[in-house]
Amino acid sequence: MSYRKKKKEEAESLSSSLEQNLVLLRSMYEGCIDVVFRPFLIGGRRKAALIYVEGLSNIEEIDASLLSPLMEEEAADLGPFKDLLNKKISVAKATEVQTISDCRKYISTGSPLLLLERENIGYAFGITKWEKRSIEEPAAESVIRGPREGFTESIGVNLSLIRRRIKSPDLKMKSMSIGRYTQTDVVIAYMDGIADPTLLEEVSKRLGRIDIDGVLESSYIEELIEDQPFSPFPQVLDTERPDVAVANLLEGRVVILVDGTPFVLIAPTTLYSLMQASEDYYQRFIIGSMIRWLRYIFILIALHLPSIYVAVLTFHQEMIPTTLLLSMAASREQVPFPALVEALIMEVTFEALREAGIRLPKQVGAAVSIVGALVIGQAAVQAGIVSAPMVIVVALTGIASFTIPRYSAGVAMRMLRFPVILLAGSLGLLGVMLGIILILTHLCKLRSFGVPYLSPMAPMQFQDMKDVLFRAPLWKQNTRPRLTGDYNRRRQSPNQKPNPMRGDE
Hints:
The protein is α+β, with helices and mostly antiparallel strands. It folds into three domains: 3-125, no CATH class; 155-269, no CATH class; 295-452, no CATH class. Helix content is 45%, strand content 12%. The strands form three sheets. It has a five-stranded antiparallel beta sheet with strand order 1-2-4-5-3, with helices on both faces. Strands 6-7-9-10-8 form a five-stranded antiparallel beta sheet, sandwiched between helices. Helix 16 packs antiparallel against helix 17. The termini are far apart.
């Protein structure tokens, strides 16, 4: 049966004939051994049927709260079922269902569906139960000081983690389903009165345009809603930490939660947001600013150190002190390759070792990557394939790349490193400058839901510079960053600076 014919059939309303509804649903779930059809009589007189999925529905709760009270009812009234529902059913959530499509939706999500004879509506009960992972600390975003909770694969748990931190009713959540067959639950969370309505409208419009067979992870959504899909830089921030999501909600951003993944999406984002870690705000502002500057320096090292080394060694030897140049020449005496080839060999090998360490089991992954790097590096130097200075440069570059807080941003920097090395090997420092100009030009043109990627530096917004190159004290950050409008800019009272009591007062 074609997809359009299925959708047309599912859009039909329920019939008042119980048998007709069951025939249609049985044909829909034919071959699904986990879908249970349980016919029974209410009070021994009225025909009814309960449909649920084993493994997604709570069987004990179904027996205790639905089947037992309905089957043991002595005088089943043949009138509306609502009276009996209010008297006998002790389930907190009961939803009326009127179409076959809604029936399929609730059955597939684990909510038992009750159908009755002579009623053209059904009732879905919120009695779901399935195995889920407990709340743990995110492995990729660990902190020394800060909350240890992380999102899980259950969207209900993730919503509760956000709601527990923001108790205001201004926290709004809009739900939708995306995916023809998976029907994945997607929730848009935002702060009413803080988020710009035009931003919310744009996010909803982009999500509404998605028509795909299935959504298995939030990366599917990210790839389909970003502004420029061919850019190596991520235009949507992803995180496993509820505190990061809440902080961005309070700044006027929109959070997109996807069922089945612990990674939530935050839009819009900027390059500087990707370079910030949650722990920057949990340390004192002086320490946070120093760590941030250290991170910026090592990001530049991760992107440009190998290319500068190749350029200087190939074209600009006069820039190297004589003693150091003689030492480097001695170490490269047995190396048969030029500096460009040598750098590419080492960089590719390092990336392969890093990838192997990620894919291997945790018990051996770290050991294999570290031992492999030491053994291969030492063996390559002794065999005369690469020089010792090149091993030092590649090792320092690898360490620098680990300081980037967001994995997606780190991958972009690692990928751009190779074309810059090629430019350096071809044109020297002129090629390095050409690579920097091309990258900056691309970043200046890049947008995330209409927000310039380099804002608030380009275009310059002095009011928002308090949380970019350094982290200003909390009592100085009186306004929210400007995103897509000037909607509710004030975030706190301007009189927050500490006023310590003097001893002589």
